[in-house]
Design brief:
Layout: H1 2-8, E1 12-16, H2 18-25, H3 28-42, E2 48-52, H4 63-67, E3 70-77, E4 85-93, E5 102-108, E6 111-115, E7 131-132, H5 137-142, E8 147-148, H6 163-176
Helix pairs in contact: 2-3
Length: 192
């Protein structure tokens, strides 16, 4: 492999996978020495090396983490129902202020689509603090003018008590004021 690299001078190299290296080395000490020698070999070669590891080694073996500049962990979960859920986590990315945490991604025809984790503090927007009226004067008076814009309100009660009707009253009042409203009704058929 090293001779082929010296002949072709690649700018990007993928080693798939390091678990094969581990098996061929036959001992953890020899494996670590080989990985360190590989790292030394690439110093000054202007080559980006991507190493794939299936995490079949002992959980406490973080030797690879210390040798690599960057570590990106991928995972996939298969729920009882629905599609496979894939996520990635940047464990280490030297010299960068990366977005930590778990980020969903999808494998699609043509490549990957990554959905970075949203951080609420980075997506705030200012809005005018005001009451949102329901359009029912007695209810708005009871609530001191209405509910506060930008807040969440939970309507609770047994079936038939009017929760959906009250919520739709707010949506109707919003559209009558020229605001936008959306409803998501999961207990009705699409024909209703």
């Amino acid at each position: 492999m090293l001779e082929a690299i010296e002949r072709s001078h690649p700018s990007c190299l993928v080693i798939d996978s390091l678990s094969e290296y581990r098996l061929l080395a036959q001992s953890s000490l020899r494996y670590r020495r080989q990985i360190l020698a590989l790292k030394q070999f690439f110093i000054g070669r202007n080559c980006t090396v991507l190493m794939i590891d299936d995490r079949t080694s002992e959980a406490s073996d973080l030797q690879l983490h210390s040798l690599a500049h960057d570590v990106i962990a991928l995972d996939s979960n298969v729920p009882a129902y629905g599609q496979t859920h894939r996520e990635l986590r940047v464990v280490k990315f030297r010299g960068s202020d990366f977005i930590s945490g778990f980020h969903d991604f999808a494998i699609r025809r043509g490549g990957l689509t990554v959905y970075p984790r949203l951080v609420a503090a980075q997506h705030s927007s200012s809005f005018q603090q005001e009451f949102i009226a329901s359009g029912v004067t007695a209810l708005d008076t009871l609530l001191g003018g209405g509910v506060d814009r930008g807040t969440s309100t939970l309507l609770i009660g047994p079936p038939g008590s009017g929760k959906s009707t009250l919520a739709l009253q707010y949506a109707t009042a919003a559209t009558e004021r020229g605001d936008h409203a959306a409803t998501f009704v999961f207990e009705r058929s699409p024909r209703c």
